[in-house]
Amino acid sequence: MESGPLSLRDHEQNRLDQLGLPIWRRLLRYVRPYWGFVALAMAITLAASAADYFRAYLLMPLFDEVILPAGKTAASTQLDGWIDQLPIPFDLGVSQPADAESQPADAEGQPADAEGKPTAEAPLLSEEAVAEQIRTRFVEIVIAAGIVLLLLPLIYFVRDYSSAYALGRIHVDMKRDVCAKLLALPLRFHQESRRGDVYARAVNDVGTAHRALDLLFGDLIQSSLRIFVGVAFLVYLSWQLSMMALVVGPLIILVITSFGRRIRASARKRQQQYGEVTQRLMEILTGIKVIKAFRAEAAEDAAYRRETRKLFKRNMKVTKNRLLARHSVDLMNHSLTYTAILIGIMVMGWLEISMGELAAFFVISNQTYRPVKKLAKAWVQIADASAGADRLFEVLDKPVDIHDAPDAVEIGRVRRNIRARGLSFSYGDEPVLENVDFEVNAGEMVAIIGRTGAGKTTLIDLLMRFYDPTAGCIEIDGHDLRQITRDSLLGQIAVVTQEPFLFDGTIWENLRYGKPDASREKILKAARAAHVDEFVDEMPDGYDTEVGATGVRLSGGQRQRITIARAILKDPSILILDEATSSLDSKSERFVQQAIDTLLGGERTVFVIAHRLSTIRQADRIFVIEDGTITQRGTHTELLSQDGLYRELLELQNTAT
Question: Would you call 224 helix, strand, or coil by DSSP?
Fold first, then answer.
């Protein structure tokens, strides 16, 4: 069962719980909910491996109890000639039975040993009985092999499906955790991070981290289990030959461990370069109009080629170490295995090993070599994939520094005022706001003006608690924002920005984003209030019209009216307008301004970041910000009568018009 979304405090607690844990322990935490499926797959792997090796083991009774006895007995002609059809590519070296006269016998003519003493041998079977015994044993071996052949596909299906289900759910969990973390991280992280690198971590690195678990359970552990079962069969057949073949084990471990360290270091650099390539591509796609306008296609293509060449070189370094490790293991395995088989053939008599046992040993050792090769390959690939896991957990380990206090309270609509006291904020060592004080009564409209970089947007970000101040506080009805739950705070705020953002979907879906549980009647009422219906009625699909990514299929004025309708639908207590009409033409501005006038109605406390005189004049009060402090405050008429930045900006605007 999937759990609901985590609170910011839960995200932070999870981060603290996992800090300092080894990468593999953290990855295995994803396996815990699906351990039953993984355990089932591992148990089936053991059973399937035993069945698979048992097929090769059947060579021993096939040789020792069917093929060789059939060649020895004179009754072979009574076996319907079937033995002659077997593709035996070598001389079995079987001699015919010695004549009775050459056999030692006692006084009564019974078989005796070299000293003439009677032996305890069982009486010889007749040729017909031997032939029947061979036939029976052959049928038993064929039936046993047939049962194994029929069961193995079913067993492997259950194993592979169980593994795929568990690993698939783990992949979903990883993606969900990264998305939830990115949503929970403060605005500072997103402003300071490169979008391409974040995207690469959320997509490429999640995939490589999941690949590490896939290799762990799909290749590493399953191959280890197959090797364990194979070695057990080999030791059972001949422990002496097994010791010769297993000498290579420590050498293989040394090789893959050594190369694994190199691969992990170089793979991390490669993953970082993935982020650079992704960043470059995203910049090209985002700025394609600017690139074409400046005819910079060739320059951007050259820059992208440079980044991809770097990626290729770093990837080839990983590939070189991976191939060296794999083929070194191949060399050691081939050399030691065939040496052991050669020695076994030479000393069969001394080891008291039969032809059937040697044949079974050879086939099983060859079968065991395949998982050894797979294990070595998986190990170096896991070292490669671990770099992605490192970068994934770097994101998950980022602190969520904005979260609810344990005693945080919920608030409703603003009843009295919004007040800032001694408010200061800085990005690193650079102060942006210093000792800001103001009080805005409920229902007032305040315009905030100032030059670019003066701190207007930062002040609004602090009001929405995207950041916490470095000193001072903001209070709503006497409650410090840090003592208010973020859900209840943001539930009372709506924002209409200069660049309206729409999600890829229909107009209706974008309207509902303001209040997902709103009724159809309320949504249509908000759309009419924002004059959305005036252009929607002209569209063939109406409210089901697809807007495209970021609303690219609509004009700027149409997008802005939809965002205003969203805000009207939300019915906020605090409204923030960030130059909502500055980028529109005169006709679009008229429609949008009418929608804003509708939005301004009601008991709302409004903050407007404005430059246009038409917007500023509507404000009850105006705050002028210079170098991070409020230098002027008052009405339009009051400030116009004073010397200062306000009058200077208005005069410049009047001159420009």
Answer: helix
**Which pLDDT score, from 0 to 100, does residue 122 have?**
47
Is residue 579 domain-resident? yes
Query: Is residue 574 within 8 Å of residue 605, measured between CB atoms?
Result: yes
**Measuring CA to CA, how many Å separate 226 from each of 60, 220, 222, 369, 563?**
20, 10, 6, 10, 60
Q: Which domain holds residue 635?
A: 443-454+491-656
How many Å apart are CA 268 and CA 314, to the nearest integer?
A: 9
- Look up the CATH number of the domain holding residue 383: 1.20.1560.10
Cα atoms found within 13 Å of the Cα of residue 601, Cβ hemisphere only: 10
> Alpha-carbon distance 409 to 411, whole Å?
7
Q: What is the structure's pLDDT at 214?
A: 84
Quick check: is 315 in a domain?
Answer: no
Helix (H) or strand (E) run with residue 622 in it = strand 621-626
Q: Collapsing DSSP states into helix, strand and coil, what is residue 83?
A: helix
Go through the chain and tell me how many residues it has: 657
The CA distance from 461 to 191, in Å, is: 12
Q: Any idea of the CA torsion for 242, 247, 248, 251, to the nearest 10 degrees?
A: 150
Contact 529, 595 (CB under 8 A): yes
Looking at the structure, do residues 522 and 610 belong to the same domain, yes or no? Answer: yes
Check residue 473 and give its pLDDT: 92
Q: Which residues pair with 630 in a beta bridge?
A: 625
pLDDT at 269: 83
Domains contained in the chain, number: 2
First to last CA, the chain: 62
Q: Are residues 561 and 498 in the same domain?
A: yes
The first and second tokens of residue 209, run together, are: 């981290």
User: How do beta strands 621-626 and 629-634 pair?
Assistant: antiparallel
CA–CA gap between residue 584 and residue 600 (Å, rounded): 19
CB distance 511 to 566 below 8 Å: yes
DSSP states along 572-595: -SEEEEESTTTTS-HHHHHHHHHH
Residue 88 to residue 525: CA distance in whole angstroms: 89
**pTM of the predicted model, to two decimals?**
0.68
Rg for the chain, CA atoms, rounded: 40
Task: Look up tokens 């270091």; give the residue.
Answer: 265
Which pair of tokens denotes residue 481? 């924002």
Which are the contacts of 583, defined by CB distance < 8 A and separation ≥ 6?
A: 498, 499, 556
**Strands across the sheet with 479-480, in order?**
430-441, 417-427, 471-476, 479-480
The reply to whether 528 and 380 lie within a common domain is: no
Tokens of 499: 């660049």
Query: What are the mean pLDDT values of the chain's consecutive 10-residue runs (657 residues total)?
Result: 53 57 80 87 86 82 75 49 46 41 47 48 60 78 84 85 88 87 83 81 84 81 85 82 69 74 80 82 77 78 88 87 78 69 63 73 79 77 79 83 82 90 86 91 89 86 89 92 89 84 88 86 87 88 87 85 86 82 61 69 80 74 90 89 85 69
- 555: CB partners within 8 A, 6+ apart: 588
**What does the H/E/C string look like for 519-559?**
CHHHHHHHHHHCCCHHHHCCCCCHHHCECCHHHCCCCHHHH
Residue pair 246/63 in contact (Cβ under 8 Å)? The answer is: no
Pairing of strands 471-476, 417-427: antiparallel
- 50-63 per-residue burial string, b: 16 or more CB within 10 A, e: under 16: bbbbbbbbbbbbbb
